[in-house]
Known about the structure:
By secondary structure, the chain is α/β, with parallel strands linked by helices. The chain has a single domain (2-205), classed as 3-Layer(aba) Sandwich (Rossmann fold), CATH 3.40.50.150. Helix content is 44%, strand content 27%. Strands 1, 2, 3, 4, 5, 6, 7 and 8 form an 8-stranded mixed sheet that branches. Strand 4, helix 7 (133-143) and strand 5 form a beta-alpha-beta unit. Helix 7 crosses helix 8 (164-180).
Amino acid sequence: MLPQVFKNWVDSQYENPRGPVGKYIGEKMVRQHRIEVEWTIEQLQMHPNATVLELGCGAGDAMATIRHKRDDVSVIGLDRSKTIIHSARKRNDASIQTGRAHFIQGDLHQLEVADVSVDHVFSIHTLYFWEEITTVLSEIERVLKPNGTFVITYCDGKGDVEWTSISDMVQDRFIPEAINLGFEDVSVQRGPDSRDYHTVAVMGHKPNL
């Protein structure tokens, strides 16, 4: 019984890092997800002087990477974990001081972000934890400017094993819901494998009506 209890506790730390162990896990995920971060940022095709929102920003590595690549871009990172937001702020302190980075502890189902204020939204390895897909997509649609884009990166398998539950959810629920909300060119793009995990992203854009 104890091993399962311990596994459940570890899993909960990955979903919502807390305390010293959560801080360690946050930094571990930074090291583990470098390939996905770099690839996802490439898919954003950021506009000049864009504002970029990351849902589930973790320890802020993707935000720091964007700011390193594009000093004209402003970033907003949101995460539910107080522990991990603290790490993200420390990693991005210089950009916070110049007003180019802002971090929010909050729920991705109810974004504390103004309507039509963001050019690009992305998220890496949070899709598994979305309790209400329609709610999150509605929030993304609300905060995105016309012509804004989203990229939601996840894994759908490892090695020879395919995770059909996540693939089916994307095809049967995510994509139809996104199209119903008015997003266009909604599609799944295959990315590079990372530590033998199969990287993919579902992406689309908000039309300029």
